[in-house]
Amino acid sequence: MLTATRTTTMLPVEDPERAGRFYADALGLKPLGTAPDGTRIFALGQGDALGLRPAEKGAQSKQTALSFEVPDLEAEIRELESRGVLFQDYDLPDFKTTGHIAVMGDERAAWFTDTEGNILCLHELLGDEA
Fold first, then answer.
1. How would residue 46 be classed by pLDDT, with cut points 50, 70 and 90?
2. Lowest-confidence range among 30-39, 57-66, 70-79?
3. Neighbouring residues of 90: CB distance < 8 A, sequence distance ≥ 6
4. Three-class secondary structure of residue 73 per DSSP
5. Chain mean pLDDT for the chain
6. Which residues of 73-103 are buried (b: 16+ CB within 10 A; e: fewer)?
7. From the CA atom positions of the chain, what is the Rg in Å?
8. β partners of residue 122
9. What is the mean pLDDT of residues 13-20?
10. How is the beta sheet containing 102-104 ordered, strand by strand?
């Protein structure tokens, strides 16, 4: 069954070289190689992987494409900001961040974009879920 398989999340990127530097240098992901079609592959936790697939400009989603679960959201934000990552802030009628963080039920989250415009997220589970 699929529940026992490893997964590869594929993100569209206009410039695989530029995106690869961001994921390696800013996010600290380990590069695994490049596929024949130019997709750059990076290791994620638990044996999963991330593929940065060459695509035309505008292929990126307007929604969160990938979320990383972290044990200490503030510490991760500080670390990524020190590497040049810029976090988004929102002030909407039904959605607001304070210090880049939104609280949503039993989790807290913060969003940023990669060099290609893909929306990425860090999230931390609260309470018994953590």
1. confident
2. 57-66
3. 96, 97, 102, 111
4. helix
5. 93
6. beebbeebeeeebebeeeeeeeeebeebbbe
7. 15
8. 68, 110
9. 96
10. 64-69, 119-125, 107-113, 102-104
Euclidean distance between CA atoms 84 and 78, whole angstroms:
10
Structure tokens at 63: 């929604």
CA distance 84 to 62: 22
**Cα–Cα nearest to 109, from 121, 118, 127:** 121
What is the pTM assigned to this prediction? 0.90
Residue in the structure block whose two tokens are 């959201």: 73
- Supply 31's token pair: 């590069």
- Distances from the Cα of 87 to the Cα of 26, 53, 84, 111, 124, angstroms: 13, 23, 10, 6, 15
**83 close to 25: Cβ distance less than 8 angstroms:** yes
Residue 25 in 3-state DSSP? helix
CA separation for the pair 130, 82 (Å, rounded): 26
Token pair for 89: 């802030």
